[in-house]
Amino acid sequence: MDIAIIGGGASGFFCALNIAMQRPDAQITIFERTSTLLGKVRISGGGRCNVTHSLFDAIDLVKKYPRGAREMLSPFIKFNPENTIEWFRQRGVTLKTEPDGRMFPVTDSSETIIECFLREAEKLGIQILMNAGITQIKKTEHAFELHTNTQRYRCDAVVVAAGGNIAEDLKNTLLVMGHTFVPSVPSLFTFNVPKHPINSLMGVSVPMASVKIAGTKLFEEGPVLITHWGFSGPAILRLSAWGARHLASVNYEFKFIINWIQGSTPDYIFQELSNYKQWHQQANILNSPIDIPKRLWKFFVNDTGIDDHTIWQAVPKHLLQKLARRVSVDEYDARGKTTYKDEFVTAGGIQLKELDFKTMESKMVPGLYFTGEIIDVDGITGGFNFQNAWTTGWLAANSLAIS
Ligand SMILES: Cc1cc2nc3c(=O)[nH]c(=O)nc-3n(C[C@H](O)[C@H](O)[C@H](O)COP(=O)(O)OP(=O)(O)OC[C@H]3O[C@@H](n4cnc5c(N)ncnc54)[C@H](O)[C@@H]3O)c2cc1C
After folding, report:
1. 343 pLDDT exceeds 80?
2. Ligand 1 centroid to 378 CA: how many Å?
3. How much distance in Å is there from the Cα of 51 to the middle of ligand 1?
4. What is the pLDDT of residue 341?
5. Cβ neighbours of residue 60 under 8 Å, at least 6 residues apart?
6. Binning pLDDT at 50, 70 and 90, where does residue 147 land?
7. How far apart are CA 13 and CA 396, in angstroms?
8. In angstroms, rounded to a whole number, what is the distance separating the alpha carbons of residues 24 and 161?
9. Which domains does the chain have, with CATH numbers?
């Protein structure tokens, strides 16, 4: 049996290795468009490769996927981060868990993952063709014909693992075969608030804030970081994933509200400030009972029109109310987005209803499989996007191994 894998990235390699392990008789070829294998793995996680996340329960795991949560439940029951850890362990790669649950190789180097994949591929006799971009896939009566710009190849089954941003020629050939795509939009980005005075506080971070997109139910909580262009940090990145489609539809111009003391209300904060004022009348306004960084508090104080030298006794009730609102309903206008350290994924891809999630096989074209980011599944930041690549690659491999 000849099996072609389109894409020498995370999912394509994982799929190829898992087929080869089970079917030594199969001739497996990885076609890679560029001259680099596993390019995204190399740069992932800041060069450390955040392989997966220590979230083992499938029901909890799917909650990390803004798109594809329902469809990925059964796949994650079959192959989840626990299986990923074991798969790598059996091949001499130990993963470690960081306090926030992200998992990396103990070497802190993505090269460890790449070396493991390349070593296994060689051992298992997988053929790898570089600079071999597939431009066309044709279904013949009992097989497939793949075209590159210069060659044609025959194979019995095809796995398309071409990632999130596929070229028009490959996309068109899949459209001709009857597949459709949910349009791609970026996910995992930071919010720009250009020229806003808060940008002067770049580097200030709050470990537990909450952020909401005004007029929607989109909400996240966690660390927020002020940057020289706006806001970043895990809460913002996760919110960008949940809001990827909505934010694209408004051209990244939207209002968002930060609650710097997660769960607080303006009334509650006002009460805290009033109590403090009562007992610390002569204290300087820059001494505050509110548990936020001193620079952020000073910014709110000055932005509310209060001078640094003011004592609490001199601050009238209406300014305390204003300060309380700044702390718990702090509103900003986003004007654009910035890709987070290039660590974006695409939301969108092959329509989920066109795939059988037991096997990752196309429901329209038997023998054609899709895995990884090309399908309309994406996770928030934290190792969840690679886990999608491993799980879907593994499912396709298992199906091909018994066919
Ligand atoms: C900078 C960065 C850092 C990231 N860090 C993390 C992280 O730490 N943890 C995490 O979980 N996720 C991370 N991600 C997301 C993760 O890298 C992707 O979700 C994952 O690589 C998707 O795997 P894939 O195999 O589907 O696609 P890819 O890894 O993109 O591989 C697809 C491959 O197919 C090839 N290809 C495309 N078209 C063709 C064609 N027509 N013919 C032949 N070959 C073709 C491409 O050249 C590419 O090599 C990161 C993403 C980026 C951009």
Report:
1. no
2. 12
3. 13
4. 61
5. none
6. very high
7. 12
8. 21
9. 2-185+349-402 (3.50.50.60), 186-262+331-339 (2.40.30), 266-328 (1.10.8)
